[in-house]
Amino acid sequence: MSSHNFNPVSIIRKKRDGQCLSTDEISFMIEQYTRDEIPDYQMSAFIMAGFIRGFDDREAATLTDAMLNTGKVLDLSDIPGKKVDKHSTGGVGDKLSLILAPIVASWGVSVPMISGRGLGHTGGTLDKLESITGFMVDIPLDRYRNILKKTGVVMAGQTEEIAPADKRLYALRDVTATVESIPLIASSIMSKKLAEGIDALVLDVKFGSGAFMRDLGDAIELAETLVTIGEDFEKQTIAYLTDMNQPLGYAMGNWLEVKESIHALRGDGPADVMEITHTLAGTMIWLGEKASTINEGVEKSLEAVQNGQALEKWLELVEAQGGDTNLIHNPETYREAEFEFEFKATKDGYIQKIDAYQMGMGSLELGAGRRRKEEAVDPTAGIVLAKKRGEYVKENETIARGYTNKEAVIDSVLQTMDEAVSIEAERPEMNGLIQYRADKKGVHELKT
Ligand code: URA
Fold first, then answer.
1. Which of 99, 279, 314, 417 could be a cystine partner for 343, CB 3.0 to 4.6 Å?
2. Pocket test for ligand 1, best of 89, 189, 205 (most atoms within 8 A of CB)
3. Does 62 reside within a domain?
4. What is the residue with the minimal CA distance to atom 2 of ligand 1?
5. Same structural domain, 355 and 277
């Protein structure tokens, strides 16, 4: 805890004038703000000064440390073995956590996962899990620890005790146009992840139309900052840069994505989803010291799906968190949305583009997402693609199906889909899905 008594105005002025702040100055701002000693208007000015002038790597690490220490840092040292988590910067159709957490845990690597809810065009793991009848994500820390001990994996929401400063700061940034700052995003993410008591972390940093960082260069910079902070805290941290220009897999929407994940765990997952899943899961298995190379980890990830051990682990987790395992055995028995409609090709040709951002917004309109934090989501709503980018379609062939309980939005969602999809005579060039890996040695281009 900072014992200094600085003047917030001097610190704001120093950052406004482009100077670096000391560790004590940053700690003072974060601690005093969390204790209500610094008002929102001064914190807003401070954050805006930092947004414009930037924070260097040391300052970003200090921000992380200060936010982390406003709450509890879990001590999981009594649980044997390595604890490894994964974090995604958010995407459309991104159900990877549901598939990879049981894969990794099935090899004896503990996965303590604290996730978020969907906001705007992106989905959130918690909303997906809650679509499973009975599944509880708001669980106290002692129960969280017990589930992890027993099953080797737990998936829950952020409690009040985890990095409370980040919760307040994020809400302030949201309304002061200061979200899109690489050091602020990186320190926000890492303060929550480091509070989980992990030994190592794998990050899925997305770029493209459905990503938070649309530009690949910005996404690489974010990945480097995240890795630098993680390694500063002596946690092995590896980031992958993955393409988020089209939705991942076929399904968007909460239960629809859980259903796709069940198929994936049964060995029938979409190629793009499985490529990233196995790479991230393999890296986690290696970081958890259950494989001697990342490649061996990837082999083990494939094996866990083929031999059914990952699906077994998923069933154990669903049961431990109160979910109805009958739905996992028989996903077709889930209730359906009242209205189903089809989006069809207007001409023959190759699908050039299925814009992830627009499809995510379409899915939100149908009821799968929320514009404001307070809104509820409809677990049955969403979109399931019938075709992916690069596939050939004939006029009138179905490209996607929409599911909703709100008949009135169907026409406008069909229009959104029409803007999201383009069809051309030429087959599009297909870029690799996983383009770079960032680790403590630097950024490496991957050939996929
Ligand atoms: N996600 C976070 O947790 N924090 C940010 O600042 C942005 C995305």
1. 417
2. 189
3. no
4. 189
5. no
Check whether residue 222 and residue 309 sit in a common domain.
Answer: yes
Q: Where would I find the H helices in 158-287?
A: 164-174, 182-194, 216-232, 254-265, 271-287
With a 6 A CB cut-off, is 185 part of the ligand 1 pocket? yes
Pairing of strands 236-243, 434-439: antiparallel
Q: Is the CB of 172 under 6 A from ligand 1?
A: no
What was the pLDDT predicted at 5?
Answer: 81
**Same structural domain for residues 256 and 127?**
yes
Q: Is 189 in the pocket of ligand 1 (CB under 6 A)?
A: yes
Nearest protein Cα to ligand 1, atom 6: 185
Domain membership flag for residue 76: no
Q: The domain that contains 287 carries what CATH number? A: 3.40.1030.10
Q: Say how many CA atoms lie within 13 Å of 263 toward its Cβ.
A: 18
Q: How far is CA 72 from CA 118, 169, 197, 440, in A?
A: 24, 17, 10, 27
Domain that holds residue 418: 336-424
Distance 435 CA to ligand 1 centre (A): 22
Residues of the chain with pLDDT under 70: 1-3, 448
Q: Is any atom of ligand 1 closer than 6 Å to the C-beta of 191?
A: no
The reply to whether ligand 1 has any atom less than 6 angstroms from the CB of 351 is no
At 334 the pLDDT is 97
> What's the structural domain count of the chain?
3
Residues 172 and 318 in one domain: yes
Q: How far is the CA of 109 from the centre of ligand 1 (A)?
A: 26
Ligand 1 centroid–CA 223 distance in Å is 13
Whole-number Å distance between alpha carbons of 186 and 223? 8
Is residue 263 annotated as part of the catalytic site, yes or no? no
- Dump pLDDT digits (tens) for 329-388: 999 999 999 999 999 999 999 999 999 999 999 999 999 998 887 888 999 999 999 999
Q: Is 411 a catalytic residue?
A: no
Same domain, 322 and 378: no
- Tokens linked to 58: 């040391």
* 69 is a domain residue: no
CATH code at position 374: 3.90.1170.30
